[in-house]
Design a protein that fits this description.
- By secondary structure, the chain is of the alpha/beta class.
- 44% of the residues lie in helices and 14% in strands.
- The protein has an 8-stranded parallel barrel with strand order 1-2-3-4-5-7-12-13, surrounded by 5 helices.
- The longest helix is centred in the middle third of the chain and has 28 residues.
- The two termini are 23 Å apart.
- The structure holds 1-deoxynojirimycin (NOJ).
- 1-deoxynojirimycin binds next to loops.
């Protein structure tokens, strides 16, 4: 038997071992895409005048911060191989490609008033032109965790002057690329920027200001988001006619048991883990529960005022309703009950719940990711019910494994399971879901996991100088889903 035949049989067998999938088809105007982020794929860390981001800086100083002592110096080498990447996106047949722009590549000195890097500008110009020439719509994330280190030296997202620096940078992107880019995402996952970056030290800049730095960080992110949304609305939208949204991530919280107590714990969890970020943008302020609880705990801890900052009336006006679509990154679910032993003060202590999982859930290679497809439907319904059914674009969803693993049946099952729940949310629950983005196009630098954790539809050989790309089975399956707008693809 030839290798091709063996491969085809294995492929059929593996893809046939899958969960029950929905019979519905995706609506005609439903958009499919695939995503990456600058620091995770580009490499070329010091080329074309680029300066260090907080990731470059911290990992150059201390390689032990990642599991494999790696960094993003070369990553997938997309700084040089961007054309090949776009070819892979094109062959996948998706409607859009979600990429992010590296602030320190465009503005090496980062701060308001600083000079553009011509090479940086050309790099993204070429990518955007090539995408459009290939009929792929660019969705651009303005900020995906790679704060320029220059900016971090003056406090990063804890210093309110960052708002003006961000506005300066984002405006430049609108000026440079807004004639062609019509979908902008202001921030990727503020929860992780602020909680993991400034409180639990799981991500750069690895700060440990629990229960204070995290709240201050998001306060500035929310104001920066609202202001740039209004600037776009007033100054650019009339001519450029694009849309601006934000990507908020959420692990869905379900009650651990049927008791009233656990049900309430799950409600609290959602307010603190999703409402913290979504409520200001969709309803004008932090969730009342957070304002009340953090205010009370802060007083008891001896703070003169709440650790949760207050928005002014003007800020509320700016932030409230500042979205054309709501980006959602979702991967997994937890079960909630009250309890837990957390540092005081800390966000988790303010929330006061403990997470657990159902042992029957399938674990991925990442210690935070279990396959729980119904959680995505639960979350979509939550958003619909709490926030007046806004247009939701799923900007990330994906599965982690280790190794080469070309026949990635687990990723295929995960994707089909989650997409089935999206269909049910659309047709059975009336949720306004406008699109889905697979994370990720390529295996890439998975933050502190380095290159040990693989999310790619395409395997990347990080041992080869060429960073050879090999599509996995999930790439072929996703391609069929996209082409048929259906999960019934055999
Ligand atoms: C969220 C982040 O946006 C992305 O950078 C990361 O790689 C994936 N989730 C997987 O952890």
């Amino acid at each position: 038997m030839s290798m091709t035949v063996i491969h085809s049989i294995a492929f059929l067998f593996l893809t046939a071992v899958s969960c029950e999938v929905s019979n519905y088809s995706f609506p005609e105007n439903f958009q499919f895409g695939v995503a990456t982020a600058s620091y995770q794929i580009e490499g070329g860390w010091n080329e074309g005048g680029r300066s260090e981001s907080i990731w470059d800086y911290n990992l150059h100083q201390n390689p032990n911060l990642t599991d494999d002592k790696s960094n993003g110096d070369i990553a997938c080498d997309s700084y040089h191989k961007w054309k090949e990447d776009i070819e892979i996106v094109k062959n996948l047949g998706v409607d859009f490609y979600r990429l992010s722009i590296s602030w320190s590549r465009i503005l090496p000195s980062a701060l308001k008033g600083s000079e553009l890097s011509t090479e940086g500008v050309i790099y993204y110009n070429n990518i955007i032109d090539e995408l459009i020439a290939n009929n792929i719509v660019p969705y651009v994330t303005i900020f995906h965790w790679d704060t320029p280190q220059v900016l971090e030296f003056k406090g990063g997202w804890l210093n309110e002057t960052v708002i003006e620096d961000y506005i300066y940078y984002a405006r430049i992107l609108f000026e440079l690329y807004g004639d062609r880019v019509k979908h902008w995402i202001t921030f990727n996952e503020p929860h992780q920027i602020c909680e993991q970056g400034y409180a639990t030290a799981e991500k750069a800049p690895f700060k440990t200001l629990q229960g204070t730095g995290d709240y201050l960080c998001y306060h500035h992110v929310a104001i920066a988001h609202g202001k740039i949304y209004r600037i776009y609305e007033e100054e650019y939208k009339p001519t450029q006619k694009g849309q601006v949204g934000i990507t908020i991530d959420c692990v869905f919280g379900a009650p651990k048991t049927d008791t009233e107590e656990d049900k309430q714990a799950a409600i609290d969890y959602m307010e603190f883990q999703y409402g913290w970020f979504a409520h200001p943008i969709l309803s004008g302020n932090y969730p009342p529960l957070m304002i009340e609880k953090i205010g009370e705990l802060s007083r008891r801890e001896g703070f003169p005022k709440s650790r949760l900052p207050e928005f002014t009336q003007d800020e509320i006006k700016i932030i409230n309703g500042s979205f054309d679509f709501l980006g959602l990154n979702h991967y997994t679910t937890v079960l909630c009950s009250y309890g837990g032993n957390y540092p005081v003060p800390s966000h988790r202590n303010d929330l006061g719940t403990i997470d657990s999982i159902d042992p029957s859930w399938k674990p991925s290679a990442a210690d935070w990711l279990w396959e729980v497809p119904w959680g995505l439907r639960g979350l979509l319904v939550y958003i619909k019910d709490h926030y007046n059914n806004p247009p939701v674009l799923i900007t990330e969803n994906g599965w982690a494994n280790r190794g080469r693993y070309i026949h990635d049946v687990d990723r295929i099952n995960y994707m089909k399971g989650y997409l089935s729940e999206v269909l049910k949310a659309i047709y059975d629950d009336g949720c306004n879901v406008i699109g889905y983005t697979a994370w990720s196009l390529l295996d890439n630098f998975e933050w502190t996991y380095g290159y040990t954790m693989k999310f790619g539809l395409v395997y990347v050989d990080f041992e080869s100088e060429n960073r050879t790309r090999t599509p996995r089975d999930s790439y072929e399956i996703y391609k069929k889903i996209v082409a048929t707008k259906s999960l019934q693809i055999y």
